[in-house]
Write a structure and sequence with these properties.
The protein has 264 residues and is an alpha+beta fold. It has one domain: Creatinase/methionine aminopeptidase superfamily (Creatine Amidinohydrolase, Alpha-Beta Complex). The chain has helices at 7-30, 37-50, 122-140, 148-161, 254-262; strands at residues 54-55, 72-76, 79-81, 95-104, 107-116, 165-166, 172-174, 181-185, 202-205, 208-210, 216-218, 225-227, 233-235, 238-243, 246-249. It has a five-stranded antiparallel β-sheet with strand order 8-7-9-14-15. Strands 1, 2, 4 and 5 form a four-stranded antiparallel β-sheet that branches. α1 runs antiparallel to α2 (37-50) and α1 (7-30) runs parallel beside α5. The longest helix is centred in the first third of the chain and has 24 residues, at 7-30. It binds magnesium ion (MG) (2 copies). One magnesium ion (MG) binds next to loops.
Length: 264
């Protein structure tokens, strides 16, 4: 069942998502060599709670019935998604995808940004740039009358043309009162196929793109997912509403990137 949202609900989703963006901007201030992902998690949880929201990831169950132990996912280098924050200091040249979710006033926010730690190799910087571009190409397809396959095709064609792998096992999703609602939003697909986009549809679009193979392994912690060839992966995510016929991006990278641009 797909729940189309009213204007009121879209505004609540916007507030929850802008809180995610503000949280990721706080993280942008301290991401550097020597910082641990647990420190990022502590900062994020405090910031989210100080703003009257709860971190939706904390306690979220996996298929084994185990609760996610942290407030953000921190996926370093070959970790594609769902990395558990830990005490290993980030190193110069790492990348870290920080995925964050909030529940504010009954509605969910969900967005992810992949950060560079210190000086990152040009080939990895290109992976990040292409992944983010593919997200915006997908958002450009978010027009009433287009289909989910148009979104998937936009991501897949952009990233595969660049020679990258497009992860199939994890997908974007509807979002509202629940973090994960119908429909699924794959990062691959054929133009003109799948469900039609309608006003009020709210979805998270989240390309997960690999430098090498798209084949994955699950880590023994039952959460983290890594590339089989251990080459890096990038992940960018926005929550959007189809609103007045086109995409209304409810999360924002602007607060994050204004911090990143200051420090460079
Ligand atoms: Mg997310
Ligand atoms: Mg998501």
């Amino acid at each position: 069942m797909i729940y189309l949202k009213t204007d009121d609900e879209i505004e609540k989703l916007r507030k929850a998502n802008l809180l995610v963006s503000a949280t990721l901007a706080e993280i942008a201030k301290i991401v550097q060599p020597g910082v641990t992902t647990r420190e990022l998690d502590t900062l994020a949880e405090q910031f989210i709670r100080d703003h009257g929201a709860t971190p939706t990831f904390k306690g979220y169950p996996n298929p084994y019935g185990e609760a996610f132990p942290a407030s953000i996912c921190t996926s370093v280098n070959e970790v594609v998604v769902h990395g558990i924050p830990n005490d290993t200091p980030l190193q110069d040249g790492d990348i870290v995808s920080v995925d964050c979710g909030t529940l504010l006033d009954g509605y969910c926010g969900d967005s992810c940004y992949t950060f560079c730690v210190g000086e990152v190799k040009p080939e990895v910087q290109r992976l990040l740039a292409t992944t983010k571009e593919s997200l915006f190409k997908a958002i450009d397809q978010c027009l009433v009358g287009r289909r989910l396959g148009d979104i998937g095709y936009a991501v897949q064609s952009h990233c595969e043309t660049a020679g990258y792998g497009v992860v199939r096992e994890f997908v974007g999703h509807g979002i509202g009162r629940e973090m994960h609602e119908e429909p699924q939003v794959p990062n691959y697909g054929q133009r003109g196929t799948g469900k039609q986009l309608k006003n009020g549809l709210c979805i998270a679009i989240e390309p997960m793109i690999t430098l090498g193979t798209r084949e994955l392994y699950m880590l023994p912690d039952h959460w983290g997912v890594i590339t089989q060839d251990r080459r890096p992966a990038a992940h960018f995510e926005h929550t959007i509403a189809i609103h007045h016929g086109k995409a209304d991006v409810l999360s924002s990278f602007d607060p994050i990137e204004s911090i990143l641009n200051q420090s460079h």
